[in-house]
Amino acid sequence: xxxxxLVDDREDxxxxxxxxxxxxxxxxxxxxxxxxxxxxLLADVDYALILMDVNMPTLDGFETAHMIYDREKLRHVPIIxxxxxxxxxxxxxxGYQNGAVDYIYKPINASLLQAKVSVFVDLYQKNxxxxxxxxKLLTMNKxxxxxxxxxxxxxxxxxxxxxxxxQTIDKMEMxxxxxxxxAFIASHDLQEPLRKIRIxxxxxxxxxxxxxxDEAKVYLEGLQKSADRMVVLIQDILAFSKMxxxxxxxxxxxxxxxxxxxxxxLDLAIQEKNATINIEKLPQLRIDPNLVHPLFTNLIGNAIxxxxxxxxxxxxxxxxxxxxxxxxxxxxxVQDNGIGFEQKYANQIFEIFNxxxxxxxxxxxxxxxxxxxxxxxxxxxxxxxxxxxxEGSTFIVSLPSAMETVKSEAIVA
Length: 413
Hints:
By secondary structure, the protein is of the alpha/beta class. The chain has 11 helices and 12 strands. It has a 5-stranded parallel sheet, sandwiched between helices. Strands 7-9-10-12-11 form a 5-stranded mixed sheet. Strands 6-8 form a two-stranded antiparallel sheet. The longest helix is centred in the middle third of the chain and has 53 residues, at 155-207. It is flat and about 80 Å long.
């Protein structure tokens, strides 16, 4: 049952919405003001959609939406604004800035309203199904592992349970791929509205620059910077999610050549920070060059980014391949003299969206190191970090010395 919150200060409008959206699988909850809507949402965050009138006394729709999205637990609930006024693109843009996903104009077109609500309810239900499926599979996996431990004396039973466990793992991998595809599609579809936001912002800045006061210019500049950060975030999410279902090609490659290409791409950042990059000879390995290039880019880029104030970064890149030629793994080290971090966070930094510093201190999306981990694991390798605050960090990438066993199909991280 999907819950939809209807917000309008006029009872006749609420009755009209109820009449149009009357369906057995919808639960319609009414609020006659922005404050009452907030009260309902704080009591229960599980809503599929909010339909909100723009023009309301005390708190209008824009103000209410802003207050809703100030709360972390409510940011997932989409808002469609209902308005009887056509104020032009600036007004529409204000609605999108406050979190709206769409606009509907009065008088209400019943078929259009039903169709749009149906789309958002369907997205809400599919997302819930994916989450429930994953939780169910995790529960099944734990139960199977416990049963294997309890009945390990029975060989036949263990074999049967192992088969079930493999099936569960397959289902979990399928669920993870579905989630990655969902993230990929969602991020891809976000690019078009974001492009419009950037275009509208650019037009405002160019056409009305002389008519805007200083405060408005600051707001507009902040908008453009936020849109630019969103572009980078979407690109990183796309790169992270598509890796699970894209095939790669593993070929013998000279890591020194790949590193030279990476340093060429990072030339501007190197010059801006007056960074010194010391490179020692790296081996040839059987890898996917298209993946190792962003691996080097993220690791070296982070070493430059997280430099100590007023101290030029010094980055050393080397390998222990010649020292341990018979080892199963070749270790590549990226060492810097930056700010470092507490060693207790060494595993946490490789989790997606996990950042040790705020956006205002150091720019970034929180995806780079998670992407590095996924790239290394796709090569059947490992990545780790050693660090001390104020003394720099060393990232260690361990790749198989002989990659004959690496498969070209995707390996889910």
